[in-house]
Design goal:
GO terms for molecular function: DNA-binding transcription factor activity; transcription cis-regulatory region binding. The chain is mostly helical. The chain has nine helices and no strands.
Amino acid sequence: MTSRNAAATRQRILEHARRQFAQHGYAAITVKGVADAAGVSPNLITRYFGGKDGLFLAATQVEIPVSTSFDGDRSTLGPRLAASIVQRWFGAPGEDPLLVLQRASGERPEAAEALAAFLDAHSLEPLHRYLRDSGLDDADARSRAAAIDAFVLGVSTRRRVLRSELGDPADLQAWLSTTIQRLADG
């Protein structure tokens, strides 16, 4: 097998794993089930990822380009963040590594720790810095960032993890936009 085919096979396995972990959580997923869905031998998952735990860790590597949401004035933060959030939530249903971590955080302490660390580093702290740099004092910036972070995580948990309907993307974006802006403005 060439390295190009190995890379493509590894990626295909990860896509199926993300989808299954996002839809069913950690406990319900088997290496064999992911291998069957990806059209590979379970031995390949062991070879590439070391087993189910390694596959889970690889499937939950999260990257969110939040910096683009912070380009601009604080008076338009709500619309920018809401657009980014809605795009992520509706973009690749069932394959979002952040959703995988959210769903698994109740089952696996390491998933909860990874989710908290990710949100601190890629959501809460950048938002805190942005709000502080926009003219708020440090304590006010921190509390507003914490409120926005908690609001978005709560909506995400309610609508994505508990499997409620996300609703109409435009309506959701408008509501998120208004609420995030209110929290940013204090």
